[in-house]
Amino acid sequence: MTEQTSQNMAPFGLLGRKLGHSWSPQIHARLGSVPYELHELEPEELAGFVRGGSWRGLNVTIPYKREAAQLADEVSERVLRLGVANTLVRRTDGTIYADNSDVLGFAWMLERFCERHLGGSAPEALGARKCLVLGSGGASQAIRAALEDAGARVVTISRTGGETYETLAERHADATLMVNTTPVGMYPNCPATPVSREVMARLEGLAGVLDIVYNPERTELCLIAEELSIPSESGLAMLVGQARFSSELFQGHAIEDELLEKIEDELRSLTRNVVLIGMPGAGKTSCGKRLARMLGRPFVDIDEAILADTGRGAAQIIQEDGEDAFRRVETEVTASYCKRSGMVIACGGGVVTRPQNRDLLRQNGRVVLVDRPLDELSDKGRPVSQAKGVERLAAERMHLYHEWADVILRCTGSAQSDAELVKELLRL
Hints:
This protein is of the alpha/beta class and about 425 residues long. The protein contains 21 helices and 16 strands. Strand 9 (about 175-180), helix 10 (about 195-200) and strand 10 (about 210) form a beta-alpha-beta unit.
């Protein structure tokens, strides 16, 4: 590291090997620990950066949490207990202090979840009760520690050993809480789940599901829990919570819970897709384009994306290969876009005909039904509408549109007005 680089270094940042698209800079900007930079380092660069940099506070992510603990001059009780650190603070005397805010961030998320959904504080809701932790990797250590601090009986489920996914249902139907600490279901490999719907349905005592994955917003594990009427939450609260405790160490003052919830809401509003569904010809594309322009977001029309990807439009694929073949292509393209964040997406009218598409739309989005009177719909250039007729198509699909939608847009007659109304309905 050159002297100039060290002198110009931001006081705060995130240290890792491959950081990709991190939300930490946005979160720390709201918390006040700025400027905040991302530092991607190779293993041989780590010690020199940590010991010699001019930084004041660092968050540390995989694969350097254990090394971060070893490079510190003093460590917290949490780091001593777990052997890993995700927060480093350079003190005024130049010494480095290491802590683990992952434990604190998850504990904050857990306490709030128990208060909201399980009828009391974490010790009251979980004390002496069985909690399942999926995964035995590095991330599970902090979660196990927080659960044990709440008095829970923690059972770790892994692919090998005495407690595996194969025996989960038969051995642990009495578990109160399940927490996923594996990367299964994380963007871009989503949707995916470490526990199937069939297995979760057999866990008769299950009262809550938590997933530390925060992208997508609704992991497949959480969507399954929602379908089974089990309260669930993915990991955004833990992400913001651990950043809060790190920032408090960086800045030397407390940060109120109210700010954390505001940051969560802001991140969800910015990253959540707006997904438009409805009858063919309802105006999803024209509304979506104006909404995307209004919000400064990328826009995609799934039918246009299919044409771009395959070189054939919906009508040609249906004519040459049949409607079933087109629906398979539609699902593939829908999956590729709906796993992304912060987009406006206009779906084809028949997206609701395949049940598996529902989770694709909802994993990272709010679903808006664009509802236009049937007598205003045209079947021009729409082979399915022409073959079946608008009335029959509506009879087959309208109940599905309503079941899948989070909100309903009653068309105003103007694409611009429709877009403004969607913005208002979703509080964007």
